[in-house]
Design goal:
Helices cover 28% and strands 16% of the residues. It is built from ten helices and nine strands. The strands form two sheets. The chain has a seven-stranded mixed β-sheet with strand order 3-2-1-4-5-7-6, sandwiched between helices. The protein has a two-stranded antiparallel ribbon with strand order 8-9. Helix 2 links the parallel strand 2 and strand 3.
């Protein structure tokens, strides 16, 4: 099967597609930093660094194999945590129109539209219904499902909406691949010990792999890359010291949170310390949210966050630490994508 990745970002969905046996022919992304990472990890793909709204047509693909167009328009405007621009007036919320425009032009065998589950309810279902109706009008059999990444061996509680259009028969969505959640310990306990503010491009692993998951993601790598940790101020590190595994900002003494005008407005993900024995909470903007390492008084490294997203250790992130953190956080977990695409392969 041949793949076309729209809104490819750093390449999480593409990595999942490749793992499922799909050859990516074309990828489109407007962010130059994400494009640099994508090109580093997918050297054989034609990558168009361009706003999809200004892209008249996709390059032609010469192949008799089935084709799948996939992608997820920027999701911040549909997130339930964003009530300010979660409406039809946000121009980024209309990028689904250009996604569908390219579907009409290419006429692929399969379509995979991915987003946050809040996409279903935004503007009373207007955007969701528009995507489903247009795919049905184009003759696709359309189904949707909200999949939790933990059901597919990803060590993270992350729910994503998938809308799938198919011209083939067969079951469109995968069944869970595990009934035992992958834990934070499974994911990162073999990685190197790092200090607050670490900036180590490459170093040895902390230990031998301690789980099948870490063994899978480590692969043939002999050293660990992207060991970058945000340098937090001393007063932030002091706050970390009061937070037990599974705790959050509520565990921090009030006098240490005096710079918050109303700390009661903090959501539960702020200053959340991960627990070794459980999956991670969602890896969103983990630097801004001050997501805390399970036992060290520091934030997560880029590689630790990438492990929690199910990126292989061979997947290299480029740019400054801030850009790397954003690329990891915005990605669809590759193992989740792999399960979705492998199921489509069973239909083709």
């Amino acid at each position: 099967m041949i793949g076309i990745d729209l809104f490819c970002g750093a390449g999480g969905l593409s990595a999942g597609a490749v793992a499922a046996g799909i050859r990516i022919a074309v990828a489109v992304e407007s962010d130059q930093h994400a494009v640099a990472t994508y090109r580093t990890n997918h050297p054989g793909v034609k990558v168009l660094q361009q706003d999809i709204r200004s892209l008249p047509d996709l390059p032609p693909i010469s192949s008799t194999q089935p084709t799948v167009i996939f992608g997820g328009p920027p999701c911040q405007g549909f997130s339930t945590s964003n009530q300010r621009t979660r409406n039809a007036e946000n121009p980024h919320n209309l990028l689904y129109i250009d996604f569908l425009r390219h579907v009409r032009s290419v006429n692929p065998s399969f379509v995979v539209f991915e987003n946050v589950k809040g996409f279903i309810e935004t503007e009373r279902g207007f955007f969701f219904s528009a995507v489903v109706r247009e795919l049905e009008r184009l003759g696709y059999r359309v189904e949707h499902a909200v999949l939790n990444a933990t059901d597919f061996s990803v060590p993270q509680r992350r729910s994503r909406l998938f809308i799938v259009g198919s011209r083939a028969d067969g079951q469109l969505f995968p069944k869970p691949t595990t009934d035992r959640p992958t834990t934070v310990a499974d994911a990162i306990s073999d990685l190197p010990d790092l200090p607050n503010g670490a900036a180590i491009p490459q170093t040895r692993y902390g230990t031998k792999p301690k789980s099948d998951y870490s063994r899978l993601l480590r692969g043939d790598c002999e050293t660990c890359t992207n060991n970058y940790v945000t340098k937090n101020a001393d007063y932030v590190v002091e706050r970390y010291s009061f937070i037990p595994p599974g705790g959050n900002w509520r565990c921090i003494p009030e006098h240490l949170m005096s710079n918050y005008s109303d700390r009661a407005r903090c959501h539960d993900g702020i200053y959340h310390r991960l627990s070794w024995g459980h999956p991670s909470i969602v890896i969103g903007n983990y630097r801004k949210n001050m997501l805390v390492h399970p036992s060290a008084n520091r934030g997560l490294s880029v590689r630790e966050a990438a492990r929690l997203q199910s990126f292989a250790d061979s997947y290299f992130f480029t740019g400054s630490i801030g850009f790397q953190q954003q690329q990891v956080a915005n990605a669809v977990p590759p193992l989740l994508g792999k399960a979705v695409f492998r199921q489509l392969g069973n239909c083709s």
